[in-house]
Amino acid sequence: TTLRYHLMPVRVAKMSKSGDSRCWRGCGDTGTLLHGWWECKLVQPLWKTVWRFLRKLTLELPCDPAIALLGIYPRDTEMLRHRSTCTPMFIAALSTIAKTWKEPKCPSNDKWIKKMWFR
Question: What is the pTM of this model?
Fold first, then answer.
């Protein structure tokens, strides 16, 4: 699970009593759970690619971490019908981010695309 295997720098710093709670990817920001999966400037290009792909499919969805990370879709849109299309894309993106967890690099868009088509 995320809490067991993908500990964030903030949590590790508290557990080990060290003062370094910065992001492992080297961006310099505080490494919180939301930062690691969504806000980090090295992860954002992948999420922007996902949303660009959704727009090409003419699926207008707000760029919101609650949708991508938690699967909470807005009720007032027609997106509930398209969850079966969007959710696998988000899962593939999360898996791609997890593969490069402690590496100081951006998750690859190519790996995300391959993960989507060759699950």
Answer: 0.82
| Whole-angstrom distance, CA of residue 62 vs CA of residue 91 | 17
Separation between Cα atoms, residue 68 and residue 50, nearest integer Å: 10
CA separation for the pair 48, 54 (Å, rounded) = 10
Please list, in sequence order, all residues whose beta carbon lies within 8 angstroms of the beta carbon of residue 25, skipping any fewer than 6 positions away.
Answer: 40, 42, 43, 103, 104, 105
The domain limits of the chain are 2-117
pLDDT in tens, 35-61: 989 999 999 999 999 999 999 998 888
How far apart CA 19 and CA 9 sit, in angstroms, is 10
Residue keyed to tokens 């995320």? 2
